[in-house]
């Protein structure tokens, strides 16, 4: 008797290899990007919405690039790097410190994307302990996490919401000179 497909949410669920964990994690990343896109559209910040429309299918390309054919190119990485530079130019003053993941709904959604990209990177590391993984996938996921962060700060900036610096009680913070005075960052 043929197994009914309605009971299978993903054909590789019972695999032992970490590949399936990576695919599930990057599916979650892609879903979070879709949610962030919906919220960004409501907040009407076109540059971020346009960029997320480019990033959304790329997250699925990252997903399939381990089990299937590598679908992330140097051009994809260069485009994402240029978008990072764009946002950093706008928010460089706000990102000098660690900040709390707060602000607009879109900023919060983008912080979730940042976190999901980091989890995807970590899961990809587990895969790399079992098989060869193209280094461009690590580069793309690491950069994607950083792009999501600067996008979140940009969304807050566009809404006039100040970032709230996070001061760790666990780790020593660096000191920087500001107008001949030392300031902890």
Automatic annotation (TrEMBL):
Protein known as: Corrinoid adenosyltransferase
Class of enzymatic activity (EC top level): transferase
Database matches in Pfam families: Cob_adeno_trans
Domain Cobalamin adenosyltransferase-like: 25-154
UniProt-listed InterPro entries: CblAdoTrfase-like, CblAdoTrfase-like_sf, PduO-typ
Residue spans crossing the bilayer: none
Keywords, in A-Z order: ATP-binding, Cobalamin biosynthesis, Nucleotide-binding, Transferase
E.C. no: 2.5.1.17
């Amino acid at each position: 008797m043929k197994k009914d497909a309605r009971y299978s949410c993903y054909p590789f669920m019972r695999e032992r290899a970490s590949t399936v964990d990576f695919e599930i994690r990057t599916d979650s990343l892609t879903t979070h990007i879709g949610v962030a896109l919906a919220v960004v559209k409501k907040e009407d910040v076109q540059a971020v919405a346009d960029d997320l429309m480019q990033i959304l299918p790329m997250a699925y390309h990252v997903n399939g690039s381990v089990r299937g054919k590598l679908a992330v190119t140097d051009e994809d990485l260069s485009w994402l790097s240029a978008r990072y530079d764009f946002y950093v130019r706008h928010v460089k003053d706000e990102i000098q410190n660690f900040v709390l993941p707060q602000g607009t709904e879109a900023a919060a959604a983008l912080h979730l994307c940042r976190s999901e990209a980091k989890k995807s990177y970590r899961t990809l590391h587990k895969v790399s302990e079992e098989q060869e993984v193209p280094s461009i996938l690590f580069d793309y996921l690491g950069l994607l996490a950083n792009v999501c962060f600067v996008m979140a700060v940009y969304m807050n900036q566009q809404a006039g919401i100040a970032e709230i610096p996070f001061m760790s009680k666990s780790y020593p913070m660096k000191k920087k000179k500001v107008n001949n005075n030392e300031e902890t960052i």
